[in-house]
Specification:
Blueprint lengths: L4 H15 L4 H8 L3 H8 L16 E2 L6 H12 L18 H13 L3 H11 L2 E6 L10 E8 L7 E6 L13 H5 L8 E6 L17 H14 L5 E5 L1 H13 L4 E6 L8 H8 L5 H17 L1 H8 L1 H10 L1 H14 L9 H12 L4 H12 L3 E2 L2 E2 L6 E9 L10 H4 L3 E8 L7 H4 L1 H12 L2 H4 L7
Parallel strand pairs: 4-5, 4-6, 6-7, 7-10, 10-11
Antiparallel strand pairs: 1-2, 2-3, 3-5, 8-9
Helix pairs in contact: 8-9, 12-13, 12-16, 13-14, 13-16, 14-15
Length: about 450
C-alpha cells in the first residue's frame, strides 16, 4: 500500500516527536514540515470531527467526516502496538493478536471510510434536530441524529427503533424496506431510528443525568416533534432498557412495544425454589443463564458502571483498541454460524470512534446509579408498564427463556415468542424472524392496541 506523504513523514519522526513533545511548534519547524502537515499534526487532539451545531427543528443531514480525522485515524492504526499472546485458546480473554493484526491490515490496505460514508448516506434518510425535555431536571437541550423513512401507506404505524451497545442506527438498515414497503395484507410502518444520545452522530451529553428516564423523555419528545403523538416501539439491549421507561412513563404516547431485551431479576422466592429444584424448565434455564452472565460475562459492564474513564482514555486514543473492545462483544453475542465482514466490524467500531466512546460507555454508570443493575446482578428499579408489551427471545442472549409470568410482573405482557435460533443482533442477523415478530404483534390489534391505524 502507498501511504500518503504525511503518513511516511510521521512514521519517521515519531521518536523525535516523543523527545520534543514539550516544544511541538519549534520541533515541527526544525523538521521543515509544510503548513498543511503541521495543521494535521497540531490538530490531533480535536474531539468531534463533524459539525455539532444542530438546529432546533428536524433538518436533512448527511455524514461528512473531516479528512484530517480519517488520516490521523489511519496513522494511529498503522502505528498499532500489538500485545503478546500467551498460550491460551483463542478468544478466552478477548481477541487474539492474529485477529487484531488481520483487522489492522485490512483497515490500512482495503478499508475506505469515504466509500462507506457514501453508502450510508445513500441508504439512510438522515436528519438532525434538538429536543428540550419538559418538566425535567435535565436542563440541557439534547441534539439528536436520526433516520426517518416514511411509508407510502396512509395507515402506516409510526415505529420508534432504538439500538443498543455495541450497535448503532445502522442496525435498522435491513428492516427499513420490509417495514415501510410490506407485502399486501401486512402492516406498514413509518420508521424512526435515532442515534441514542452520545452514540454515532448524536453529540455526547455535556452534563450528568442522561439516565434511562431522561433518555426515554428524549425519545418521546423526538417522536412528538415529528408529529407522531401516538407510536409503537421496537428495541433491544440499551434501547430495550430505554423502551421500558418510555412505555411506562409516556403511556399517552406509546401505544405498545416489542422488545428483544427484557431482563427480570429473580426474587427471593424464585431463588429458593431454584435451590430446592422446584423451578420450571424455563425458570431453571433463565436463572442459570443470568447467573453465568453475572459471574463470567459482565466484567465489561462492571468496569463501565464504576469507572468508565479508566478504559475510555486509552480507547479514545487507539482506534484498534476501541475496535477490540466493541468487537469482543459483537462476536460473543452473535448468532451461531454468523460471520462478520471485516468492513462491517470496522464500520461498527467507527460509530464509537468518531464521536469518542465516553458517552456510550457512561450510560452503564447512569443505569447502575438508577438501579437497572446492582453489582453483578440485575436490579429491580424498572417501573411497571401498562401498555401492551411483546417479548421476542433469542437463544444467544443471556435472558433467553424468561418465563411469560415473570415478564408480567413488570409489564402488561401480551405476546411472547421463544426462537430456537438467533442471538443479540436480531435486526441484523435474523431480520426475517424479527420482521415476522413485528408484524405478528403490531398487526394484531387485540395484542398491541394498534387498531387506530387499521381504520
Amino acid at each position: 500500500m502507498q501511504l500518503p506523504g504525511s503518513f511516511l513523514l510521521w512514521l519517521g519522526i515519531l521518536p523525535a516527536a516523543i523527545r520534543a513533545q514539550n516544544n511541538l511548534a519549534s520541533f515541527v519547524q526544525e523538521l521543515g514540515l509544510a503548513n498543511e502537515e503541521y495543521r494535521v499534526f497540531s490538530d490531533i487532539h480535536s474531539v468531534t470531527p463533524f459539525n455539532t451545531n444542530f438546529p432546533s427543528t428536524p433538518s436533512p443531514w448527511n455524514i461528512s467526516i473531516e479528512r484530517k480525522f480519517i488520516d490521523i485515524t489511519r496513522l494511529k492504526v498503522a502505528l498499532t502496538r500489538y500485545h503478546e499472546d500467551i498460550d491460551i485458546p483463542p478468544w478466552t480473554e478477548g481477541p487474539p493478536r492474529s485477529n487484531i493484526s488481520e483487522l489492522r491490515n485490512y483497515w490500512l490496505n482495503n478499508y475506505d471510510w469515504y466509500s462507506v460514508e457514501r453508502q450510508i448516506n445513500a441508504k439512510y434518510k438522515q436528519f438532525i434536530t434538538t429536543v428540550t425535555l419538559p418538566d425535567s431536571n435535565y436542563t440541557d437541550p439534547v441534539p439528536l441524529h436520526f433516520v426517518h423513512h416514511r411509508s407510502k401507506h396512509d395507515n402506516a404505524i409510526p415505529l420508534l427503533f432504538m439500538h443498543g451497545t455495541p450497535g448503532s442506527f445502522l442496525e435498522v438498515g435491513a428492516l427499513l424496506d420490509p417495514l415501510t414497503n410490506p407485502p399486501q395484507g401486512q402492516p406498514a410502518f413509518h420508521v424512526v431510528a435515532p442515534s441514542m444520545p452520545g452514540y454515532g452522530f448524536s453529540p455526547a451529553p455535556k452534563i450528568l443525568g442522561m439516565d434511562p428516564t431522561h433518555a426515554a423523555s428524549t425519545m418521546n419528545e423526538l417522536m412528538k416533534q415529528l408529529g407522531y403523538n401516538k407510536y409503537v416501539i421496537q428495541a433491544g439491549d440499551y434501547g430495550g432498557i430505554v423502551l421500558r421507561y418510555t412505555a411506562a412513563l409516556h403511556p399517552d404516547n406509546v401505544v405498545s412495544a416489542l422488545t428483544n431485551f427484557f431482563i427480570v431479576a429473580p426474587n427471593a422466592t424464585d431463588l429458593a425454589r431454584f435451590d430446592a429444584n422446584q423451578t420450571t424448565p424455563d425458570e431453571t434455564a433463565y436463572i442459570k443463564s443470568i447467573q453465568n452472565y453475572g459471574e463470567n460475562n459482565s466484567g465489561y459492564r462492571l468496569l463501565m458502571s464504576e469507572s468508565p474513564l479508566q478504559a475510555v482514555i486509552s480507547m479514545t486514543d487507539s482506534p484498534l483498541g476501541n475496535l477490540a473492545f466493541e468487537w469482543t462483544t459483537m462476536k460473543g453475542l452473535s448468532s451461531k454460524g454468523w460471520s462478520w465482514k471485516l468492513e462491517d466490524i470496522i464500520t461498527w467500531s467507527m460509530m464509537y470512534w468518531i464521536p469518542g466512546p465516553y458517552a456510550s460507555m457512561r450510560h452503564y454508570r447512569e443505569m447502575a446509579l438508577h438501579g437497572v443493575f446492582a453489582g453483578t446482578t440485575l436490579g429491580n428499579a424498572f417501573p411497571f408498564i401498562n401498555v401492551p408489551i411483546g417479548i421476542s427471545e433469542w437463544p444467544g442472549d443471556f435472558w433467553y427463556r424468561l418465563p411469560l409470568e415473570w415478564a408480567q410482573r413488570y409489564a402488561n405482557t401480551t405476546f411472547r415468542v421463544v426462537h430456537d435460533v438467533g442471538a443479540h443482533f436480531s435486526a441484523v442477523q435474523n431480520t426475517d424472524l424479527l420482521v415476522a415478530d413485528i408484524r405478528s404483534f403490531f398487526g394484531n390489534a387485540s395484542l398491541s392496541n394498534t387498531g387506530r391505524w387499521s381504520k
